């Protein structure tokens, strides 16, 4: 089905289309442009075309064959499981599921090996995945074993009844003992791999924090997020001038890893109807980092 848009002045063609076709990745949109599936005033154009405004833009998407996650016999740490849910402890550096340029070595590849049945609502490349953690973030992640469990968990996430608590070390000394950040989050229009809280527009995002300990150059926080936006904690803390330690993407000095850990998650099990709280202990390298301060 062809999608039709009217160009906006001053925007690159690929950036404009990603804003309009948010369900697709930038790389997929760029591949359509290269394949002449995007016409500007009836003519194929380059990704870098700067729009004047008012152009008639037509996009004819091409479906890519779905990826199918293959089983890989690699270790996985299970924190909790019942008939509906598996909670795993994801290490930093591990991607949750396949994406652009990566089809193996993910958490999903490990899950498929260790568990025969997982929810298929996310498709063959994302079995069981209800929510995600950034590649460089460690901690507890929930996986749905059945489609019914997936729907129930997704409803809890969208209804904001799931409690998500992170531990983060940020650069600088935060003055207030507690705080609440409500700046909306949007894709950075200049650096597309980043998000930003500097724009007036964006998706609602709510982050609350409590100071656990302070040092001269760092503050250790317990962070609760009420929403689940991409890079939410990283963006919100950077917007205060206190980027997460090790987060070079958002202005922190380089370090061995990002100091952001999904410590605790509380939810209602679709299998039992009972409240469940799962904790992932702070990784040894992060505990050692704190001890060194």
Describe the structure.
With 293 residues, the protein is an alpha+beta fold. It has 3 domains: 3-59, Roll (Structural Genomics Hypothetical 15.5 Kd Protein In mrcA-pckA Intergenic Region, Chain A); 78-159, Pseudouridine synthase, CATH 3.30.2350.10; 166-258, Pseudouridine synthase (2-Layer Sandwich), CATH 3.30.2350.10. The protein has helices at 13-20, 26-34, 107-114, 147-158, 232-239, 284-292, and strands at residues 3-6, 38-40, 43-44, 56-59, 78-81, 85-90, 138-144, 163-171, 178-181, 186-187, 195-196, 207-214, 218-225, 260-268, 275-279. The protein is globular, with a radius of gyration of 21 Å.
Which geometry do the CA atoms define? Answer: globular
CATH top level label of the largest domain: Alpha Beta
Unreliable spans are none
What's the average pLDDT? 92
Give me the Rg, rounded.
Answer: 21 Å
| Sheet of most strands | 9 strands, mixed
Count, helices: 6
CATH T-level topology of the largest domain: Pseudouridine synthase
Question: What is the N-to-C succession of helices and strands?
Answer: EHHEEEEEHEHEEEEEEHEEH
Percent helix, as a range, is 10-25%
Strand content: 25-35%
Compute the number of strand runs.
15
Question: Could you say which structural class the secondary elements and strand pairing correspond to?
Answer: alpha+beta
**Domain tally:** 3
